[in-house]
Amino acid sequence: MELWQLRTLVATAETLNFTKASEALNLTQSAVSHQIKALEEELGTPLFIRASRGVRLTDAGKLAYEHAKRILAESEDMLQAVAHREKAIVGTVRVAAATQALVYLFAPLFEEFMDAYPSVELVFRTTPSTEQTVAGILDGSIDVGFASLAVYSPGLVLTPLFDDELELVVGKRHPLVKKRVVSVDEIRDDRWILFERGASIRRATDAFFKSAGMVPEKALESNDTYFIKLMVERGLGIALMPGWSVKEEAANGELARLTIDGYHLERSVSMASLKGMRSAAIDAFIAFMSDNKEILQAKAAG
């Protein structure tokens, strides 16, 4: 369990109302409900009895409330005695992103952040879809997530980072490999290797098919970027992928990056986190990534 969960427990126990607790914590009611549910699952027992006019504590909830108050008081005493005196930023930041973005774009910056803040532990988690990233932030299992779709949630703070563009990727033996720009008609009968549904790339790909009036022949689906690239290299199909994710293979001549005439499949990538109180470590991470937006944009455009 985490301190923010205990703060949510205390606020809910003292107001006996999820709405009032969410206002006190500057969170959405949904976020408060998610956090209480997660805490109840971890403790293995209900802490509140839900009723139409509010909630009331169970016996286990009363016991948890007393413990939570003591733990929060002691944590504040420790903060005053140690962290504030030393002026150090300490703690853990749990970060989530798609595997390919972690490897190609964020890893070097994460390494720089860890060098700059040695007392902060970064915990990495890969997610197959933006929906899962957002769900993890709202239920408290993720502190900062990277989302490449439009995200609308009153409980989230979004910080734009960079834009990128999906490109048509073909293998070195494909008939169109030497072209720079291709028409929709030239690829209409090709077989496609697709990302699985839920991935932002799949959403953009499906939107392209709809706009182009195409019903693609599907070769296979996967969320493994390396596997998709390998299958394209071997000629099993073509794919839409961020240009930066195939930069090395394109330079080696294993893959070719093409543009589809009349289409610019752009995406906007943002950093998402919960509104309300955040630890100094999370704030430092968000500020660090924001300060390096130009570096990320340059990599994404490469």
Characterization of this structure:
The protein is of the alpha/beta class and 302 residues long. 47% of the residues lie in helices and 24% in strands. The mean pLDDT is 87.
Query: What's the end-to-end separation, in Å?
Result: 41 Å
Give the CATH class of the largest domain. Answer: Alpha Beta
Secondary-structure element order, as H and E? HHHEEHEHEHEEEHEHEHEHEEHH
What's the overall geometry?
A: elongated
Q: How many helices?
A: 12
Our estimate of the beta-strand percent is: 15-25%
User: Helicity, in percent?
Assistant: 40-55%
Count of beta strands: 12
CATH names the topology of the largest domain as: D-Maltodextrin-Binding Protein, domain 2
Assigned CATH superfamily of the largest domain: Periplasmic binding protein-like II
Q: Give the name of the CATH architecture of the largest domain.
A: 3-Layer(aba) Sandwich
Overall radius of gyration: 23 Å
User: Main β-sheet: number of strands, strand sense, barrel status?
Assistant: 8 strands, mixed
Name the poorly predicted regions: none
Mean pLDDT: 87
Domain unit count: 3
How would you classify the helix and strand content by structural class? Answer: alpha/beta
Key features?
two-stranded antiparallel ribbon; eight-stranded mixed beta sheet; D-Maltodextrin-Binding Protein, domain 2; 302 residues; 12 strands; Arc Repressor Mutant, subunit A; elongated
Quick overview:
With 302 residues, the protein is an alpha/beta fold.
